[in-house]
Amino acid sequence: MIKNSSSVREIKILAQHICSMSVFKAQRVIDQIRGRSYEETLMILELMPYRASYTILKLVYSAAANASHNMGLNEADSFISEAKVNRSTMGKKLRPRARGRSYTIKRPACHITIVLKEKSKMNLI
């Protein structure tokens, strides 16, 4: 979704049903990048040792590419104004056990939302 008003230009990107991680694993990465500039975010995500950082890095790249292609925003002048993680549906499988019993295996998933905004000259003064 692209929002374009007279003073604020922002782009919002949403990745749904990310099956490789739980909310808590993604949240510790998202907390580190919230409110940072685009270049600083890329450096942080490339150096973090967590598996969730690669998925979030691809999402930030996609948001910046959409912002530059659709709205003509400069990637160097943008920052992450909002980043949040929400819980998604839980994938469930049955694992066979002894004596004909079964246990469930729960696979968590999450929704990740990232909003990129352009740094305006009025906010910097």
Helix content: 25-40%
Question: What is the SS-derived class?
Answer: alpha+beta
Order of strands across the main sheet:
1-2-6-3
Query: How many discrete structural domains?
Result: 1
Termini Cα gap:
29 Å
In the CATH hierarchy, the architecture is Alpha-Beta Complex
Radius of gyration: 18 Å
Look at the structure and give the CATH class. Answer: Alpha Beta
Low-confidence runs: none
Report the sheet with the most strands, covering strand number, pairing sense and barrel closure.
Answer: 4 strands, antiparallel
The coarse silhouette is: elongated
Write down how many β-strands occur, each being a DSSP E stretch of 2 or more residues.
6
Fourth-tier CATH superfamily name:
Ribosomal protein L22/L17
Number of helices: 4
Q: Name the beta content range.
A: 35-45%
**SSE order:** EEHHHEEEEH
GO biological process, one term: translation
Family: Belongs to the universal ribosomal protein uL22 family.
Pfam families: Ribosomal_L22
GO molecular function: rRNA binding; structural constituent of ribosome
